[in-house]
Amino acid sequence: MKRNVAHLPLALRLALSLQHLLAIFAGTVFVPIVLGLPVPLALLFSGVSTLMFHYFTSGKIPLYYGSSFTVLAGMTFIHQQALNMGMTDVVADCYVCLGSLVIGLVYLLVAQLLRMVPRERVIRLFPSTLAAPLIMVIGIDMLCSSTYSIRTDWLTGIVTIVAVALAQLFFKGWLRLLSILMGVMAGLVLSFLRGTFSLDALREAPWLASPFSSDFMAFRVLEQWDMGMVGIVVLTVLPLAVIALGEHVADMIVISRTAKKDFLRIIGLPRSISASGLATLLAAVFGASQPTAYTQTTGLIRLNRICDPSLLRVAAVMMIVLSCCPKLTALISDIPGAVIGGITFIMYAMVIWVGWCTAGLYDKKNRQVRSLVIIFSTIAAYAFTAFVLDGGIRIGQTTLTSITVAFITGLVLHLAIPYQAPSSSRQELASDEEASLPTDHDEPQTPTT
User: Fold this and answer.
1) What pTM, to 2 d.p., does this model score?
2) Are 146 and 345 in contact (CB under 8 A)?
3) CA 308 to chain centre
4) Coil, strand or helix: which one is 329?
5) Which of 83, 233, 250, 343 is 20 to 30 A away from residue 19, measured at CA?
């Protein structure tokens, strides 16, 4: 079955790419705002990192890269420690970029180590019993985050969600593919009528401006080198690098299940981790926030059933153009948070559905005690950390997020609980390990107009 959209009109392909850009824009600009890094630079390297990742993975994995929330708490700690030592905001941000540089180096080191391990042994660590709950907790976590934006304007958020749902239910062909844009337009019209959306910032912003800023480059720490501060940076980011690697694996599992392609076998973790490491290094050198794969695009792929990576590459080019045009950036930045929250709510609901399908609990053969224990323990670990421990466990200078705790819990249980294979052990084990990594005949077809 075809996965590309080459047969669709150019205007429709651009609109589909624009949907992806709208889905990840808010998250991409939030992290640099919190850290005090340049927003245009984050937009630029969001697009550049995506293109780099697609180049080094042969353009086969439909993932988009934006600013990482995983390392936000640790990077904020580094920034504050630098300020406490009498450094300026600019120098503190340079040490933040140095932290991203260290994470990129860890990525590359781990990728090289994984090349020495047989691929089958690496894949065996991530069967469907581990992939399913991880996919679900990622969706639940981001779904809860999107509700915070919707709460700013319940009516607008609900109207956006309803508009997308109605477009999916009643439209067919290319109109149905643009359901996200329809939801955005419905939310914007309502916001404009209620006076919560204006174009004032658009009128004042210039058309062109350079996104580059030499003030925040990682190597500028050499101008105010402090070994004590370097030690703090390394000790803080090393655990964060492990956490980020775990989430990278989870993203690979999610997109494999969504696109119905076994990317852990086709591309392999060493190549995908190396690509992420190189993108992180480049962003850090120029002073941008650390990039990471975004699950929002996976939810949109599931919604539209179009998993052609070329759409994401077009979205990356759009983001690069956007970084050089403050007027366009202002236009998208002024979209009310409730509208963005509404469309991301639907996307993450689709991610949860992917996890449920991966678990396959409706099938009796998947209801083994071992599988049920791993699945429900992983979800319980996430729920306890997210809702009882306020979203994380503090260990020294590092905070383990609820998703990370769930990933560790599931992996430990998977390794600790022995698999009791029946007489046909090899076939049963293979089916358990590869249930989440479908074959080509299950591949979704690109909808036709």
Assistant:
1) 0.79
2) yes
3) 17
4) helix
5) 250
| Helical segments of 324-363, H only | 326-333, 337-359
Return d(Cα 427, Cα 366) in angstroms, integer: 14
Element at 394 (helix H, strand E):
strand 392-395
Distance in angstroms (rounded) separating the CA atoms of residues 183 and 167: 8
Which H or E run contains 82? helix 72-84
Q: Which amino acid is at 195?
A: G
CA distance 302 to 180: 12
**Residue 252 half-sphere exposure toward CB, CA atoms < 13 A:** 27
Give dist(CA 79, CA 95) in Å, integer.
7
Going by C-alpha positions, the residue among 140, 129, 139, 138 that lies closest to residue 376 is: 129
3-state secondary structure of 128: helix
Sequence letter at residue 205: A
